[in-house]
Amino acid sequence: MYHPHMTRSMLYLAVPGLAALSACAGLPQPEGRMTDRVSELHAGWQHDAVFYLAFVRSFADSTTGPLAGDGIGDFRGMIERLDYLNDGDPATTTDLGVTALWLLPIAESPSYHGYDATDYTATEPDYGTMDDFRELLDACHARGIRVVFDLVLNHCSSDHPWFLESTHPDSAQRDWFVWRDQQPDQPGPWGQPVWHTLDDRDIRPPEPLPPEAQDDSYYGVFWSGMPDLNYDTPEVTEAMHEAARFWLEDVGVDGFRLDAIKYLIERDDQLENTQATIDWFKGFSAHVQSVKPGAWMVGEVWDSPEQIERYIGGDSPALDSCFDFPFAYAVMEGLRDTDTPRLRRDLERSFRLNGHRGSTFLSNHDMDRSMPFMGDSVPRAKAAAALLLTNPGTPFLYYGEELGMIGTGPHPRIRTPMQWTTDRDTVGFTTGTPWEAPQPNARTASVETQTDDPDSLLSWYRTLIRLRAQHPALRRGDFTLVTPENHPSNIVAYTRTIENGQRLLVIVNAGPRGVTDFRVDAAALGLDPEREHTDLITGQPVSRVLPNHPDKWRPVPTIRPYATHVIELD
Q: What one-character DSSP code corresponds to residue 173?
């Protein structure tokens, strides 16, 4: 989670090597492919999940109860809309079919976004009570939906009692934060101020400070309202272990999304990705598994593939998964720029480095939405969805992405209310006044307009999510690029293979022109010349290997612009 006023260009500067990554696909590769553990991790439920990222404030305002119609989404509003995500019946096709839910922060906070907690074991009153949340959790579990939420470990709110108590130099909680009696001349990772005084926030300590402490400075990598916790103090680790235990054991969540983890522990001038941070997360992961075996954690490491691999690589990784930001940039920019060679290379590199441990996505609550980034093109959005849901890793879908919702610029404008109907003022989100004005494209990008349209983006997401659920090779199969015999420039093709099991060929036209000469080496794919293969998207048979040319196979005579074919080989 980045400072609310950071721009996309500032984010590129904040992440070493990301600008180069965006422009160039040829990062060096480690020797060999990352070895996947044959363990609980590889057998875990997350490999069969499709996650939906929901901002409670923007998803649905309840229609009954004390919070109804206040213009703010809440837990009971989510319960009312759960059948849209998954109605619990695998035989129906009118729900989206997602099987896991990531909620942005739900702990008590003074901010609309919730990334600065004032109580780690209480729910945000705008969203409802702890009983309301437990009811939402039960309703999700009854439908087969797992639930994780944002646990913000790096920092808390400057209004948190811990921090207010620490302002006094004699406090027992002084070392829970990083204090200095003089303000260091030290910029942050993207050149921002990271040392702050109480005057910066007009913070009023609970008791008067001695004169010599009134100008003391504290460290906060994001801004003065988010002081960093000091994990060199054992009591801080104990407090966060207890918070995790509470949500896992007493409440029953299924894991956590861990925000901004690369900034957790600093060492001198190294302010991110320290070895101490990675070691701390190994201990935290062990604690989580001791409390709830099978609980799953995904970390936000907005960085290069090599840095991400430090957290999830090896035989004893610090975390189960990290978000694959390079994958997101590869798909979004590759489709926008029709840069198919880069797209092929980056998809292969993503699997080499992350294997099945990566968490893939197209956009999220800190980034411009995917639709405007790709020129408001529904065909491009469909191709992006196909790449997301047919590649390895655990896919995450940002709420409204399945509709083509738009949003760019300041964070509130990329977190606008979910567009349920075409109503210009409320978009069906509330009976009152929405907390943030809706986007203007609800007439076309809403559940109401798309749910019964078989050609809509929403229907396409439903098709892909069900296809992934029905075919284990799309969830757990290895990834191998397929090089077309005649190298058509727009095509991205790859196999998804389970050893001694299912093998699929995925073909995506990533460009604006149709392709009529896509051919592959039949022998290289091990195809039986006499066998008829099926396109799982259409359910129709595809071309056989030509008897007179058994070395050549053209499965689809014409691959339309941005079209996708998933062909069962074995």
A: T
Pairing verdict, β 255-258 and 146-151: parallel
Residue located via tokens 């090089």? 483
Cα→Cα distances 558→382, 487, 509, 543, 554, Å: 18, 15, 10, 11, 9
- Is residue 11 very low, low, confident or very high in pLDDT (cuts 50, 70, 90)? very low
* Delimiting residues of CATH 3.90.400 domain(s) in the chain: 161-219
According to CATH, where is 3.20.20.80 located in the chain?
Answer: 8-24+40-154+232-470
pLDDT score, position 532: 82
Sign of CA dihedral 355, 380, 16, 179: negative
Looking at residue 305, what is its pLDDT?
A: 85
Architecture of domain 161-219: Alpha-Beta Complex (3.90)
From the list 228, 259, 333, 402, the catalytic residue is: 259
**Lookup: tokens for 168:** 């006094």
Residue among 295, 298, 293, 294 at smallest CA distance from 308: 298
259 is catalytic: yes
In 3-state terms, what secondary structure has residue 122? strand
For residue 488, name the pLDDT band (cuts at 50, 70, 90): low
Query: Model pTM?
Result: 0.91
Query: Is 126 tagged catalytic?
Result: no
Query: Is 60 exceeded by the pLDDT of residue 23?
Result: no
- Cα–Cα dist 427/213, whole Å: 51
Q: Which CATH superfamily is domain 475-568 in?
A: Golgi alpha-mannosidase II (2.60.40.1180)
Q: What values do phi and psi take at 311, rounded to 5?
A: -85, -30
Residue type, 466: R
Q: Does domain 8-24+40-154+232-470 have CATH number 3.30.420.10?
A: no
- Cα dist from 350 to 302, 326, 345, 555, whole Å: 14, 8, 9, 27
Tens digits of per-residue pLDDT, 412-421? 999 999 999 9
Split at pLDDT 50, 70, 90, the class of 79 is very high
The residue from 95, 124, 272, 300 that is catalytic is: 300
